[in-house]
């Protein structure tokens, strides 16, 4: 409901009271679900991050790191086909509204932390090490580039764009080395 209001009236011109009323709840109840108006378009992102953690943790240890990350990237961004118009509207808001772009940096930091943690666990490093951080930024870059292309081209296949982007960075991830150890022990 909030997305429709944001798309119709503009994000900045839509008040929290209007969003709450459209959802049939009070302003106070809205803030039980969302910390701010900027969180509304993100939905329950923390639950999605938990799901991604679980997906990565459930990968067989024999799965090459780059392959597992690409699988997780596609899985994280998979949604039922009937939700495509809604998701496109949501992502257009997130990519096009300056206030939401700024807020997105906080969400992206949480997403990158999940990726860096997984990379660190697989490589024996720490999430704050340069390698895991770099891989997390690379994977986020793939996601953002895929979404930009998808939003610009109604015929684009988001999952294919994500997969293709993952392929571009897979060789680098597979060949990466730091502290004398290969990033991925499973060629």
TrEMBL record:
Alphabetical UniProt keywords: DNA-binding, Transcription, Transcription regulation
Keyword Lipoprotein: no
Gene: mftR
Keyword Hydrolase among UniProt keywords: no
Protein name stated in the entry: Mycofactocin system transcriptional regulator
InterPro entries: Homeodomain-like_sf (IPR009057), HTH-type_TetR-like_transc_reg (IPR050109), HTH_TetR (IPR001647), MftR_C (IPR041347), Tet_transcr_reg_TetR-rel_C_sf (IPR036271), Tscrpt_reg_TetR-type (IPR023851)
Stretch forming the signal peptide: none
Organism: Rhodococcus antarcticus
Domain HTH tetR-type: 1-52
Domain of life according to the entry: Bacteria
Segments of the chain annotated as binding DNA: 15-34
Short name of one Pfam family: TetR_C_14
